[in-house]
Amino acid sequence: MDALAPPRPADDGAITDVDVLVVGAGISGLSAAWHLKERLPHKRFLVLEREASFGGTWLTHTFPGIRSDSDLYTFGFGFKPWVGPPIATAAEIQAYLGEMIAQNDLDRFIRYNHSIETAAWDSATARWTLTACLPDGTRRQYRASFLWMAQGYYRHHQGHWPDYPGMADFKGPIVHTEEWDQGIDYTGKRVVLIGSGATAATVVPAMAETAAHVTMIQRSPTYFIPGRNANELADTLRPLGVDEAIIHDIVRRKILFDQDQIVAQCRAAPDAVAAELLAGVQALLPEGFDMRHFTPRYRPWHQRIAFVPDGDLFAGVRAGKASVVTGTIQRFTPDGVEMQDGTHVAADMIVLATGFNLCVFGDIAFSIDGQPLDMADTVTWRGMMFTGVPNLVWVFGYFRASWTLRSDLISEFTCRLLQHMETKGVDRVEVVLPAALASAPRGPWVDPDDFNPNYLARDQHLLPKTAPGPEWRHSQDYWREKDEIPRVDLDAPAFRYASARSPVAA
Q1: Are 175 and 315 members of one domain?
Q2: Whole-angstrom Cα distance, residue 320 to residue 323?
Q3: How far is 250 from 254, CA to CA, in rounded Å?
Q4: Is the whole-model pTM more than 0.90?
Q5: Element (H or E) spanning 366, and its range?
Q6: Is residue 492 part of a domain?
C-alpha cells in the first residue's frame, strides 16, 4: 500500500478522503490499524486520535502504581508476543504498543490531536463526514465509506465525583484518580482513598510506600485474587529455547481455558468460589483481621474480580501502612471524613477512586441524513453494529476477559465484512431487526442480573438496546464468540446491503 499523503494544512478547507476512518489510537484502534494494513492493504485508512500520542487508557491514566488488571498474554495482541510479567505497568504497556506501531509502520496512518465533534452520514453518497477540532481551534474534515469506532467507553480526564456533604469544608486537596496530576506530593501525608476495586487496589500500595498512612474507605468490598506476578508455564518454557510466539500462544490458550473454568464455577458454585477467594486473601492479612472488609455482598464475577500481583495491597495492611474502613460516608470534615457510624478518619489529602463516566461513541454528535442520532434508540447486533446506522462498527470489549480479545475478533470480522462488500459491489451495509422482533421488548446493553458495576448502573440508559436472541445483544462470552463471530454468515437476513448507485443490492 502506498503511504498516505500528509494531511493538508488545517485551515485550507479541504476534505481528506479515505476508505475507512478509525476513531481512537488505543489498543482497539491499533488492532484495527494492524488488521486493515495486513488484511486489506489496498484500502486507504486513517486513525484519528484525540490525544497527543497513542495508548488510550495507558496514556491518560497517570495515578500512582498504574498497571493492568488483566494479564498481558490475553490483554496483549494475539499477533505480537508478550515477554514481560503478566501484570504490567502503564509504561510497559506503552512500550509494547510503541514497538508494535514501529514494527508495522503504523504511525504514518495516525493523526494525533484530533478531537472529533461531529459524524454525519449521507445516504446519497454512502459516506461519513467527520469534523475534528485541532489544538489551535481550527477544524478539519475527513470523509470515509466506513467508520470504525475504537475510542473506548469512558471519558478520559474526567472521573465520577460523588457529591459528598461537606466537601467544601475539607482543608486539604481532593483529587480524582482519573484526573491525576504528576505534581501531586503525598509524601508523609495521611491519605484517605475513597473507592474499591482495581484502581484502589493499585493506588493504595503505591501511595503507602511514601505516605504516612493510607486508609481505603469503601462502601462495599470487592473480590480480589492475589498471586505472583509471574507465569509459571512461560517461565518453564523460556529456558528450553521455545520461540516466544509459541510461548505466547500456549500460555494464552492456558489462561483462557482457566478463565473459562473459573467463570463457569462462579455460576455453578458461587459460594464455593467465594470461600476460596476469601481464603486466599485472609492468608495474607494479619491474624484476626476483620474479613468483612474483604467480603462482598454479591456473587463472584457479578462485578469484575481484581487481581493483586504479589498481594501488595494486603502487604501494606499487614505492615500497618494501609487500613480499610467499610461503610457509608456521612460527610467530609475540615480534617478528614466522618462515617455514618460516627467513626472519624483523619486525612491531609483525599483521593477519589470512585470510577468514571460512560462516554457513548466518543460523545460525538452523530447524524443520519441530517437527522440527529441517539444511539440509545438503536438495537445492537452482537454489540458491534446498530440498527439504522450504516457502515459503522463499535469496539466494546469484555468484562470477564481481556478487552483486546474482542478488539481482535471485531477487527477480523470487520475486515471480512469490508471485503465482502467489495466483492458484492455495494457501498452500504446495515443490520435490520427481523419483523418478528419489531415490537419485542428492548433490554439494556448489559443485563444487570449478570454484571452490574456502578458506572453501568448510572449511565446504561445512554447505551444501545438489546432484543431477544443471541444476535441482538453483546453476550460478554468470549468463549462462545471466538467460534461464532468468525463463522457469521455475511449474507444472513440480519444484513442489508445497498449501493448509492442503486436502491438495493442482492
Answers
A1: yes
A2: 7
A3: 6
A4: yes
A5: strand 365-368
A6: yes
In terms of domains, do 233 and 209 share one?
yes
Residue with cell 510497559: 92
Domain count, the chain: 2
Q: What is the DSSP track for 15-52?
A: EEEEEEEEE--SHHHHHHHHHHHHH-TTS-EEEE-SSS
CA pair distance 419, 400, nearest whole angstrom: 31
SS3 397: coil
Where would I find the H helices in 428-484?
454-459, 478-484
Is the Cβ–Cβ distance between 32 and 395 less than 8 Å? yes
40 with 145, same domain: the answer is yes
Q: Is residue 3 part of a domain?
A: no
Most distant CA pair in the chain, distance: 75
- DSSP readout, 223-249? -EEEE-SS-HHHHHHGGGT--HHHHHH
Q: Domain containing 252: what range?
A: 161-354
* Residue 4 within a domain: no
Tell me: do 326 and 408 sit in the same domain: no
The answer to whether position 485 is within a domain reads: yes
Q: Are residues 184 and 327 in the same domain?
A: yes
- Looking at the fold, whether 331 and 364 belong to one and the same domain comes out as no
Which residue reads 503511504 in cell numbers? Answer: 3
User: Do 170 and 148 lie in a common domain?
Assistant: no
Q: Are residues 328 and 411 in the same domain?
A: no
CB atoms within 10 A of CB 369: 11
Q: How far apart are CA 75 and CA 306, in angstroms?
A: 14
* Domain end call among 354, 389, 423: 354
- Show contacts of 178-184: CB within 8 Å, 24+ apart: 178/61, 178/63, 178/356, 180/61, 180/62, 180/63, 180/64, 182/62
For residue 81, give the nearest of 99, 66, 56 by alpha carbon. Answer: 99
Could you read off the pLDDT tens digit of each residue along the chain, which spans 506 residues? 344 544 433 444 578 999 999 999 999 999 999 999 999 999 999 999 999 999 999 999 999 999 998 899 999 999 999 999 999 999 999 999 999 999 999 999 999 999 999 999 999 999 999 999 999 999 999 999 999 999 988 888 889 999 999 999 999 999 999 999 989 999 999 999 999 888 999 999 999 999 999 999 999 899 999 999 999 999 999 999 999 999 999 999 999 999 899 888 988 998 999 999 999 999 999 999 999 999 998 888 777 788 899 999 999 999 999 999 999 999 999 999 999 999 999 999 999 999 888 888 999 999 999 999 999 999 999 999 999 999 999 999 988 889 999 999 999 999 999 999 999 999 999 999 999 998 899 999 887 777 767 777 788 888 999 999 999 999 888 999 999 999 999 999 999 999 976 444 43
DSSP-assigned states of every residue in 124-170: TTTEEEEEEE-TTS-EEEEEEEEEEE-S-SEEEEEE-----TTGGG-
